[in-house]
Amino acid sequence: VQKYWSVVFAVVVVLCAGMTILAPAVGGWWLPLMVSSFGGEIDFLFNLILWIVTFFFFLTEALMVYAMWKYAHVEGRKAAYIHGNHSLEFWWTVVPAVILVLIGVLQIGTWENIKYQTRMPKPDGKTQQMDVAARQWEWRIRYPSPEAYARWADPANEQAKTEAERWGEAPHYDDIHLVNEVHVWAHDKKADPNDKDPQKVLIHLHTRDVIHSFFLPNMRLKQDALPGKVIPVWFQAEDYNTARNEAGVWQDGYDPKKGQWAEYNEKTDEWTHLDRIWDLACAEFCGSRHSMMKGKLYVHKNRADFLEWLQSAAKAQNVRK
Ligand SMILES: [Cu+2]
Known about the structure:
Layout: H1 4-22, H2 39-70, H3 86-106, H4 108-115, E1 128-135, E2 138-143, H5 146-152, H6 158-166, E3 176-179, E4 181-185, E5 201-207, E6 212-216, E7 221-225, E8 231-235, H7 256-259, E9 276-282, E10 294-300, H8 303-317
Parallel strand pairs: 1-5, 4-10
Antiparallel strand pairs: 1-2, 2-3, 5-8, 6-7, 6-9, 9-10
The protein binds copper (II) ion.
C-alpha cells in the first residue's frame, strides 16, 4: 500500500514528459510567432534555460519516485539515521553555480545588443521614432507628423537632423496622437537584401503614473516604464516572409488568416494597407484594469505604406468641426 504513492508520482512525471514533447507541436501552446531581428537570441536563451530546467526536473523527480518506491514503509524496518554527505552537498552546490555562471556569460552579448544605450539606433531621420506614454490603463502614442518625416528624409538638411535628434524631448504641435496603436514598418529583407543598416524603431518610453511594462511578445521585447524616467527601447520588425521557417511553413502552427492584411472597411473604419497585426500588452500589474491594458502593433510592409497610413491618421486627427 505504501508503494502506491511512488506510483502516483511516477504517473505525474510521465504526464509531464508527455506534455513536454507535445507542447511545441501544438499551435498556441508554445512561444508566439517571432518577427524581430533580435528575437532569435532571446528564444535561444529561453530554450537553453528551459532544457537545463527540464533535465534537472526529470532527474530530481526520477530520484524522488525511486526513493519513494525503495524506501516505502515496511512494518518493523528501522529508519537509517544519516547525518549528511559532504561530497554530495559540494556537487549540488558547484553544478548549479557553474550553470548559473554559464548562463550569465552566454546572455551578455544579447543584453548588450538590446539594452545598451550606446548600441541603440540614433534618433536620426532614418530611425523611426515614437513616444509611448503608459498610464492607467492605456498606451498613449505620439508620432512625428508626415511633414516631419519628409523633412528628415533629406540628409542634407542639417536643421531637420537636429530636429529629429531632439524630437523625443517634448511634444510638437503637429505630432500625431493615437491610443493603443503602435504602427511601424518592417525591414524588407527581400526588397533590399544588402541593406547593412536596416530601419529600426526607437521608442521613448515613459509612464504618467505607476510602473507599467511595455511588452511586444512577437518582438520578444519587454521593458518596464518607471515613473520619472524616459527609457529608450528599440526593435526591428522583420518582414513577414522571415516569419516563416526555411521550408516556407508558418512557425508554431500560426494561422496566417488571423494576422493578415486588413482591408479597409468603411463601416468599421479600419485601416487599409496593413501588413501584420501583433499584440501589445502591459506586463506589470498596474491596478484593477491591468488586464485591459492592451494595444496592437501594426507592422506595415514598408516606409511608403507606413507614411500613407500616417497621412490618413493625420487627416483623421485634424478634422475641424
Ligand atoms: Cu500597465
